[in-house]
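We treat protein structure as text, and this decision shapes the records that our systems exchange. The remainder of this section carries one protein's record, kept here as part of the documentation:
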Amino acid sequence: MNDGFINEEVLRSYINDNNFNNYNENIKSFLIFLFGSELNHNLSFKAVKKAGQVKPDLCITHNGIEKYISVKKGSGNSVHQEKTSNFFPCINNMLGSESLNYLKLFHYGDDTTNDTGNTRYSASECKTRYKKEIALLNAKLNTCDNLSIFLDRFLFIGNIGNLNVDAVYHGTINLGLWASRNEVISFIKNDNFNMNALHFGPLTYQVWGRNEKGTAVHPDRRYVMQVKWGSLAKDLELISKRRK
């Protein structure tokens, strides 16, 4: 079990079947943020791990109210992973075949849109080689309307789930940062994220495994996309400061 799953379990166990006054100050602050005026010091909290491929990792129930939480820890946070056979049609339906070809050019990194090139380039080489195409695609990906769709897919609902994340929590039981879904959406839509990577606000697109030399142990990872939020902790801290 990796460190992220262990951290989720520690949080779940700590919060589950307990009363407000028994928590540390960090968790008290988080629960106040979640439940606001509905928080009742005389009622306990229940916390359960959500099963299946859904975006919420944790469901906290209190006073008849359920709150769904996405739990993250550490740096380089991967927030979404999906086969290109599922994601490419999403781009085509939203933005059209030209934008899809720009994405395929970057993803395959072999000067083709069908994975038939003789030379495969690294991610950094692709950013330079396809600079114009990436810039054109980024302009479309980062409109407010399109960001709403992608953020739901990557962070809050997923491409197969039906549960909506209420808040993102980054940290441990003793030290955490958090933001509501609305705060995250507002932050991403209203701040300027200018970068040479393929991105959705501060979230960046990458290939799980480019297999540049054709010798990878898991060659199928070439056909899986990942979205990472490398600046998650820094961005949540900024959201927290603005909230205060």
User: Anything to note?
Assistant: Residues 19 and 128 are 55 Å apart (CA to CA). Residues 77-159+192-230 form one domain. Strands lie at 46-49, 58-62, 65-72, 77-83, 167-171, 176-180, 199-200, 203-207, 224-229. The mean pLDDT is 95.
